[in-house]
Specification:
Elements: E1 7-10, E2 17-25, H1 29-36, E3 37-39, E4 53-60, E5 66-75, E6 86-93, H2 95-107, E7 111-112, H3 117-124, H4 130-141, H5 145-155, H6 158-182, H7 191-223, E8 225-231, H8 237-245, E9 263-269, E10 272-278, H9 288-302, E11 306-312, H10 319-325, E12 333-339, H11 349-355, E13 361-363, H12 372-387, H13 400-420, H14 425-443, H15 449-457
Parallel strand pairs: 1-7, 8-10, 8-11, 11-12, 12-13
Antiparallel strand pairs: 1-2, 2-6, 3-4, 4-5, 5-6, 9-10
Bound molecules: guanosine-5'-triphosphate (GTP) and magnesium ion.
Magnesium ion is lined by residues 237-238, 250, 258-259, 278.
Length: 463
Amino acid sequence: MNADETIAAISTPLGEGGIGIVRVSGGEAYAIGKQVFVPRKKETPGSYPRSHCLYYGHVVSSDGEPVDEVLVAFMKGPHTYTREDTVEINCHSGIFTLRLILQRVLEAGARLAEPGEFTRRAFLNGRIDLSQAESILQIIRARSDEAVKAAAANLRGRLSRKITEIREGLLGLLARIEAQLDFPEDLEEDSTLERELPRALQGMSESLDGIFRSAQRGAIMQEGLVSAIVGKPNAGKSSLLNALLQEQRAIVHELPGTTRDLLEGYLTIGGYPLRLIDTAGIHGTADPVEQAGISKAKEAVAGARLLIVVLDGSTSWSEDDEAAAALIQEEQLAVIVINKADLPQQISRAEIGARFAGYPVVKTAAIRSEGIEELEESIVRLLDDSVGTIPGESPVAVNLRHAGAVGEARDRLQEALRAIAGQPLELVTIDLREAWLKLGEITGETASDELLERIFRDFCIGK
Ligand SMILES: Nc1nc2c(ncn2[C@@H]2O[C@H](COP(=O)(O)OP(=O)(O)OP(=O)(O)O)[C@@H](O)[C@H]2O)c(=O)[nH]1
Ligand SMILES: [Mg+2]
């Protein structure tokens, strides 16, 4: 990829429509535009083309034949998307028209843009930082109002500002610590450092935690919270899925081992979009088809953020329940459901509460849709606690990459806070420096080429 080359691409979706746009960006954009486009009115050579004006006319083939009737905008850098000279040809949107015009522009000297290359240039030319570039992709892909708003705020630089502020704070602290390490004789000079350091780090770590939670929330709003229903065969998992979705989505049967494949449904509770996955009952079996279903179930459980562990209240605690319970990972959210509450009970809420300390326990009778509201309420409480909004704050980030980097930086600062008590200051600086680097990956200042490659590959050609 060469940044000196002039690039071109069709920037609107391919298909029939009112208008399609071929965009050209780079040093040769004006020359190429003037070569392929003939304005309708005679323009005076000195003042044509004027920047950010629309010209009416035709794109013509190399032998002067009109290809399409168009409006063309010539835009002088740096006041453009990429900061480079840009030409946008607005034509009739038909697949062939657009391709002919693109072809014409390529003949005139442009190279076909790679996915995301316009946005990458905007980043490389310093118009936006990496998190802003990603916000553009998020705006394109957003699936809810909240996601659009959060991405738009990031595009305006809200996340970048917060991150930059914390990075500058870290740099300031690092400078002071290093001064103290280099000139210990001046120790008295900065006696406030010792007192201020823990407080400053605590403050930064809390800010990062706020962003982390908010980013997670953003990601959930964007993609839906992946939730798996898990438990032994016949516990009533599929019945629970149906009750939650309020439709007969899954087959329910008294034979254990009814569900084999994963089955999905979408629902929103308390404003949280959930992607709900029903799974095969977990138990030891020799049946190869059932085994395949169980290994799929385990995969789904491992990839879920929330687990709904279903127990059959009319049977006593068994090894199969044990096996299902053992699937809960520490970082997962889980709610325990004692189903079949309408039948004589073999397990008590107290017993289950003791086995699953720290997790909410709810009783339901799925086939009668009883206890479903209570289940929903406890799920909403779990989500509010772990990713809920901080009063007055709206999400700053909607991207799991941001959440990951922010979370790691926060953990580094926590590490540093622990190191302050008892460890030499050198060790503290290692953590601070790593936190600073991690945060730089968000804005792109310390992002590797590989990371950039991965991010921009996700864009479409023409963006
Ligand atoms: N009495 C009573 N029966 C229930 C309840 N929920 C489910 N059942 C019954 O239990 C049996 C199994 O229900 P499913 O929903 O298929 O159970 P499952 O956990 O999906 O089972 P597998 O897919 O085989 O793992 C069916 O006969 C249901 O009618 C309930 O709340 N009360
Ligand atoms: Mg089932």
